[in-house]
Amino acid sequence: MKLVSIDRIPGHEVEYLGLVKGTVVHSKNVGRDFMAGMKTLVGGEIVGYTEMLNEARQIATKRMVDEAEELGADAILGVRFGSSMVMQGAAEILAYGTAVKIID
After folding, report:
1. Which CATH class for the 2-102 domain?
2. Residues 53 and 26 sit within 8 Å (Cβ to Cβ)
3. What is the pTM of this model?
């Protein structure tokens, strides 16, 4: 499955199959939260949160790809990610794009 952030695949014609998305809500745990609090005192990257968000993006991307495969897609164009806080300590990660079938 090709994933691209642009709206076309240069040199290829495609059939548009529709919007696909994947989403996951991830929450922080007490250990990460404590370490994040300590890190805010001295500054710098909060590695535990970075790892948590990377994992959430991977899960959301896999769910998006699975949905595209169900449609018979070869690629997903215009891939984007979004995030929002759904409650204190929990974030939603959304991956979305347009599923396409490569014709040539």
Report:
1. alpha beta
2. yes
3. 0.83
